[in-house]
Every structure is written in structure tokens, then in C-alpha cells.
Write a structure and sequence with these properties.
It holds the Pfam family Hydrolase_6. The chain is an alpha/beta fold. The chain has twelve helices and 15 strands.
């Protein structure tokens, strides 16, 4: 409870921080000497995957060379590395094996963070009966995260065969099969975009409007609904196609609008995790700390560099976490100045929402171990490219309110958080820049 109160105080300071505090980047990719080197053994790298290392199943050419520079002759990483992706349609082991094959270096499952990884810490939901939506081995993923009673969309439609009727070929033909029945559903967990959107949208709405008993009659006035936890808010993502593809964030937009259209109420989330939520970056930082320990480092990691291609997910999220870190250090200094006594106003507590944190799960590390900051590095090989000119790369310009906001409905639009700390061409250039920045040799 004390730690959550501390976080609430930090977040209040973060929300009131100066909007101009985020660093503006130069349009010149190799202006690397703007910050002083921080010395060896002081930083960690957070890599996005799609659009940074791969495009669909095809590796981006610079990625292999980049990782050759990141490991020594024995294949051991020189610095802590964690892969932070909003994908969530597989197990960590599977993603690690895939990356190892693509990059020609060994990637451990402990280095992989999927959008749903922080759900391990949401233990208050693990004993509930949860409906899971997504694709891939969603049932196995849910059990692996700690959930004990799992219902999939397919299990639900088989138990209640008259619910899924958009596709005429899936409707009962001659006679209506009997309802099998399932235990009441206590919460809904959305892992990622499903294959049959119409089926998932229909059945999730059924569950929400019947308090987890989809064989009952809808009751749109019963509000609020059972808890909904959503992973991956990406509106768009980059595969082999020339233009971005719809992501899970687009599915969430559909679900939110359908629910409001039917009930007149806003769909509410118990937790929104995955980039750009603060809880996701803090969980990634815990993994970085573990990697540093595995490397035998005795000094704490002072700075994180988050390398991504999506201004809304990667840049916004890294900058948001950087603000959180600054607010945390400010709060710590304030507490120390007042002899460790912290008086927190009830209004501050009320203004802190679980959605802004990514959920009320207590995954945060000791405040003494938090890094000094987190820098955002934007590459031009994915969702963002310089040809789009969506970001003002001239430091004299600013992002206007007219900029299209691709973020989630529940995240406030803050144009300064869209400004990357650095803009580079590709991931190889990003790593070279970071090493030079930190005073590390590349070879």
C-alpha cells in the first residue's frame, strides 16, 4: 500500500510537470555528441521488434550486423538487452527462438517481453474465471501467466452455439445443439487482435452485457461491467506491406464504440498494458536489471535507451516513462528533504488512476534502483519514415494539436511526448549512437 501511495505521488508530480521538458531531437541523424558520455556499465537497451529488427518474417538488413556488434566472441552480450514488443500471440520461448534464428545470436526467453508479460504480476485476477481473446496459443499463454481458470472464445461459442451467427456457414443447420454451459466469467483478458473480429466482438459484448453469463438476457443498464484487461494498444504496425496494418488498438476502438453504441456507457479497462503504458516500461527495466546482474555488473543501470519505429507506442511510451522516472526522483528528494515523512493529499490519490499506470499491479522496483532516465530513439525503417514528415524534426518546430493522435482513447494527447530524443536511420545506427553517447567502444 505504501509503495502504491508513493507511485501515486510520483504520478501526480509527473502529470503536473512541464510539457516542454521532453528533449527535442535534431533532424541530423549523427549529432551524437550533444550529451556527455556516462561511462561504462551504466545503460541498457530496449529493442522493439516489428519495424526495427524485422518486417513481418524478413529481417531488416542492419539488424544482423547490429547484433554482431552487441555480443563478444563467446556470444555473450556486452550490455543488458531486452526485446520489448507489443506482440502477444505466442510464448516467450517461441519468440526467443524466432529472434535467435533471425539475428544469428542467442536470445533467451528472459530477454523477451511480450505485451502481456506484466500480467504475471496481476495476481488478484489469477484465480478468477477469465475469457481470453486473441490468436495463437492463447489458452497456454494465459496458464503460463498464472491464470488458473481459462475460457477461450472458441470454448464459449461451442458452449453456446446460437451466439456466433454472422457467418451463415457457422450457424446451426438442422436443429439447435443444446447449450453446454460454462461457469460465470469474472473478467475478460484481451491479448491481441483475433482472426474473426465479428465473432470476438459479438461474444465479448455478450459477456459484458450479461455479467459473465452469456446465456442470459442482455442488461445494458447494469454498469459497470466485469473487469477488462487489454494488452497491446497499437493502432497500426509494420509488416512486409508498404503501408501499416491494423493492430489490436484498432480492435479495441471497435469494441469500445460497439459497447457505447449499445449501452450509452464508456467501456472501462481495469488495466491497459503494453507500450506506451508506464507499467510495461517499468517491468522491462526490471528485466534489464536482471540482465545486468547476469553480466556481473555491480553498478546500477543509469539510463535506458528505447529503440522503436512507432512514434505513438515507442517514442510516447519511452518519454512517458522518462517523465515518471524524473517525478520519482523528485519525490524521493522531497521525501529525503522532509526526513522521510511524506504527507499526501487525498486529492492526489484520487487523481491517480490504475489506467494511467497500466493497472494497479505492484510490479515496480525499489525506488532506490530506478534509472536516471529513459531516452527514446526513433528509427525510420517501420511505421515512421522521414518521407511521412509527421514529426517536426526541426528543433525550432513543435507538434501541433492538429497532429493525428493514434494513441489509445484513455491516454491524454501530449504533443511533447511524441518528440524522440534521437532520430536515426536504422537500428545499427541507433546502437552506434548509443555506444558513442555512453563512451563505449563498438568492438
Amino acid at each position: 500500500m505504501q509503495r502504491l501511495k508513493y507511485l501515486k505521488s510520483c504520478w501526480q508530480l509527473l502529470k503536473s510537470s512541464c510539457e516542454g521538458a521532453t528533449k527535442l531531437s535534431s533532424s541530423i541523424s549523427r549529432s551524437y555528441s550533444r550529451l556527455p558520455p556516462r561511462g561504462p556499465s551504466s545503460f541498457g537497451l530496449l529493442f522493439d521488434i516489428d519495424g526495427v529488427l524485422v518486417r513481418g518474417r524478413t529481417p531488416i538488413p542492419a539488424a544482423k550486423q547490429c547484433f554482431k556488434n552487441l555480443v563478444d566472441r563467446n556470444g555473450k552480450y556486452k550490455v543488458p538487452v531486452v526485446f520489448v514488443t507489443n506482440a502477444g500471440n505466442c510464448m516467450r520461448q517461441t519468440k526467443a527462438e524466432h529472434l535467435s534464428h533471425l539475428l544469428d545470436v542467442e536470445v533467451s526467453p528472459d530477454q523477451v517481453m511480450l505485451s502481456h508479460s506484466p500480467l504475471r504480476m496481476f495476481t488478484q485476477f489469477h484465480k478468477m474465471c477469465v475469457l481470453v481473446s486473441g490468436q495463437g496459443p492463447v489458452e497456454e499463454v494465459a496458464y503460463n501467466l498464472g491464470f488458473e481458470d481459462v475460457v477461450t472464445i472458441d470454448m464459449l461459442r461451442e458452449a453456446y452455439p446460437v451466439l456466433d451467427v454472422v457467418d451463415h456457414n457457422r450457424r446451426p443447420k438442422d436443429s439447435i445443439p443444446p447449450t453446454k454451459g460454462l461457469p460465470p466469467i469474472d473478467a475478460v483478458v484481451l491479448f491481441g487482435e483475433p482472426i474473426r473480429w465479428e465473432t470476438n466482438l459479438q461474444l465479448i459484448i455478450d459477456v459484458l452485457l450479461t455479467s459473465g453469463n452469456p446465456d442470459r438476457t442482455w442488461n445494458p443498464t447494469q454498469y459497470p461491467h466485469i473487469p477488462v484487461l487489454a494488452c497491446n494498444m497499437d493502432l497500426l504496425w509494420m509488416a512486409e506491406a508498404k503501408n501499416p496494418r491494423f493492430g489490436h488498438g484498432m480492435f479495441l476502438v471497435c469494441l469500445e464504440n460497439l459497447y457505447k453504441k449499445v449501452t450509452g456507457y464508456e467501456l472501462k479497462y481495469e488495466a491497459l498494458i503494453g507500450k506506451p503504458s508506464v507499467v510495461t516500461y517499468n517491468y522491462a527495466e526490471l528485466l534489464i536489471r536482471q540482465q545486468a546482474e547476469n553480466l556481473g555488473w555491480t553498478t546500477p543501470v543509469k539510463r535506458l535507451y528505447a529503440i522503436g519505429d512507432n512514434p505513438m507506442a515507442d517514442v510516447y511510451g519511452a518519454n512517458l516513462y522518462d517523465r515518471f522516472l524524473q517525478a520519482s526522483h523528485h519525490a524521493k528528494a522531497k521525501m529525503q528533504a522532509s526526513s522521510g515523512v511524506q504527507a499526501m493529499d487525498r486529492t492526489e490519490e484520487a487523481e491517480m488512476t490504475s489506467t494511467e499506470l497500466g493497472g494497479a499491479a505492484d510490479v515496480y522496483g525499489s525506488k532506490e534502483d530506478l534509472p536516471e532516465g529513459c531516452s527514446s530513439v526513433l528509427v525510420c525503417t517501420g511505421v515512421y519514415s522521414r518521407d511521412q514528415r509527421e514529426l517536426p524534426l526541426d528543433p525550432t518546430q513543435t507538434v501541433t494539436e492538429q497532429h493525428i493522435f493514434h494513441g489509445h482513447r484513455d491516454f491524454r494527447f501530449d504533443p511533447t511526448l511524441m518528440q524522440p530524443s534521437f532520430v536515426v536511420h536504422d537500428v545499427k545506427e541507433a546502437v552506434e549512437m548509443v555506444f558513442q553517447q555512453e563512451g563505449w567502444p563498438l568492438v
